[in-house]
Amino acid sequence: MDNLREESGSIAVHELWETFNVSDTGDTALFPDDVVPEMRGDLSCLEQLVSGLANRVFAALSLSLGFRKTFFEEIHTHLLSGGKGSPSKICSLYYPAITDKDLQPGLTRCGEHSDYGTITFLFQEKELFPHQM
Q: Is the pTM of this model over 0.90?
């Protein structure tokens, strides 16, 4: 476990998960099409669904704060446009199965963190897509 120690001697935290982040779903976006051919279409579909949901939440937030209905929607244009506009992304997370022997000091599923941005939606894959990605 020496490789899990910081220079200070404290145990470092290593997270046991994998991610594929998408900040652009356009035709030139990089996807592992040769390995997971359905991923591009699935995440593009998810983008459309979540964009609609986000705009409904933005409208509710705007009105509840006394702003015009489109206030937040107007400042969140170009979602998932590869950095051209509002910085946003879809993070596809995978948590591989672990056993008791995998649970060692310094290992965690997902460490403490703060999400960035205005809102975060969490979905479980099986709720959205009938097949495995």
A: no
pLDDT tens string 78-116 = 777 666 666 788 888 888 888 887 778 778 888 787 887
> In terms of residue numbers, what domain contains 64?
2-128
Strand locations in 10-131, DSSP E?
Answer: 14-15, 18-22, 90-94, 107-108
Answer whether residue 133 is part of any domain.
no
Burial annotation 82-117 (CB, 10 A radius, 16+ → b, else e)? eeeeeebebebeeeeeeeeeeeeeebeeeeeeeeee
The structural domain count of the chain equals 1
Q: Which pLDDT score, from 0 to 100, does residue 12 have? A: 64
Query: For residue 81, is it within any domain?
Result: yes
Q: Does any domain span residue 95?
A: yes
